[in-house]
Design a protein that fits this description.
With about 200 residues, the chain is an all-alpha fold. The protein is about 70% helix and about 0% strand. The longest helix is centred in the middle third of the chain and has 30 residues, at about 75-105. This is ABC transporter permease. Keywords: Membrane, Transmembrane, Transmembrane helix. It comes from Terrabacter tumescens.
């Protein structure tokens, strides 16, 4: 199988917002590692994780959507090629969160990787659903993910039932992990449905 043909659609990714958001997210996570144990660390993780998820929202943007839609490659195949970029962002973010966990001396911090994976899944699935009507949904989805995370993290509307973003040992991790597993599963199912070719 020709790698260029398989990964060719990934060349259309809008690299600037993906790179900027990924760099911003990783920078905040590095700051969290440097100032481990301070309020700066917690705030940096809270903002850094959704910035990385926002970067993955842009990978499905396609300015030339009408021209690309005419090529003999299915929508699902084109999406899978671009998801390689989203996976790379997820790996980079996970490595940065591992550094944060090592610096803090608490394995609990590494649990944020599950939150990152869940948010990336949501961002990509929502972008895929919106792409059926809008060629470039990345900006809206990235902004929505960041806003939703900040509202949940600051207002704590779900704390009565579950810790959505736990970061320390002793918090309700079991409920959080179950929640994010459910979110990721629903997002993957939504992504599968949203990448069905229109004529199927």
């Amino acid at each position: 199988m020709n790698p260029t043909r398989v990964l060719g659609p990934a060349t259309g990714v809008p690299w600037r917002p993906v790179a900027l958001l990924t760099t911003g997210g990783v920078t905040l996570l590095v700051a969290a590692a440097v100032w481990s144990g301070t309020s700066v660390s917690g705030a940096s993780v809270t903002v850094g994780v959704p910035l990385l998820a926002g970067a993955t929202a842009y990978v499905l943007d396609e300015a030339a959507s009408e021209a690309v839609g005419a090529v003999p490659t299915s929508l699902r195949a084109r999406t899978q090629a671009r998801l390689v970029v989203a996976a790379a962002v997820l790996v980079v973010g996970s490595l940065a969160l591992a550094v944060v966990a090592l610096r803090s001396g608490s394995g609990a911090r590494a649990g944020a990787v599950v939150q990152l994976a869940g948010l990336c899944s949501v961002a990509v699935a929502v972008a895929a659903a919106m792409r059926r009507r809008v060629a470039e949904p990345g900006e809206v989805v990235a902004g929505g993910v960041l806003a939703a995370v900040l509202v949940i993290a600051l207002a704590h509307p779900l704390d009565r039932w579950v810790d959505v973003f736990p970061s320390e040992a002793g918090q309700r991790w079991a409920g959080s992990l179950a929640l994010w597993a459910l979110v990721a599963t629903a997002s993957i199912a939504g992504l599968w449905a949203a990448t069905r070719d229109p004529l199927d």
